[in-house]
Amino acid sequence: MKTVLITGTSKGIGLETALTFGRAGYKVYATMRNPDMASDLRQKIIVESLDMAIFKMDVDSDKSVKQTMDAILKKNGRIDILINNAGIERHGSVEEMAIQDFKVIMETNYFGVVRCIKAILPVMRENHDGCIINVASIAGRIANTPLGAYAASKFALEAISEALAQEVKPFNIRVAIVEPGIIDTRMANSIAKGGASIYPQSKRFGGLFAATLQNPTKPSMVAEKILEIAESATWKLRHPVGPDALPFLEWRASMTDEEYVDWNAASDAEWYAAVENTFGLDAREHSKILDK
Fold first, then answer.
1. Does the predicted model carry a pTM greater than 0.85?
2. Which residues are catalytic?
3. pLDDT, tens digit (0-9, with 9 covering 90-100), for 237-254
4. How many structural domains comprise the chain?
């Protein structure tokens, strides 16, 4: 039986990924910062008789990651698949967001992944086998205000994943980056609520998220893609997920950097019209709802 360790499994994509792998017959080590939040997962483990164990692990902490990884490796001997899913989001303009928020985002979304990789890689390398799947975002390839700090952490995750893939391929270790679009999670719904700002992009982008979430893409779609990657023999590095992911990436690639900056720096009237013409979404009406 293959084993998989997944971070950030208390909700959203992480929760669905743990259940998807458990139902597929894997031994799952579901880790999270606060296991008290795992009541839904615990119930499903019992009802569905899943081979799954819940561990407390804070990816922000060297000590926590080492202790948990050591305990699992001592018990099981190996971990075949590592899925780095744990992530947080803060949104706001560069001027208005506190420096501490920039640090917190990078600590979890980037350094947290690096900690987990470094803890498990020696065993995978020795076994000459393994799979590391990092959950990034299309925000790791497209930077939008007010998600500058979040995008920066995901850009960094994309970069380190690409470098890692080069290092470990000779040891038969596959690396994959999963790039979800707008998924129906607490994180996405938080962005959809917008926020007070001296910059108009926060409300506008919140309206875009809210309009997209009217036809939500469930986290289970991302979980199924992650399982597909794990069970395949693919060495493909990047995997956009969701109906809007690839279209967004192709749309961005069709513009120069200067055109993209101008598109996002346009007046409200121009921007809302462009969103409707390009994506068929009425972000304006949803932005009005945010004002109520």
1. yes
2. 150
3. 999 999 999 999 999 999
4. 2
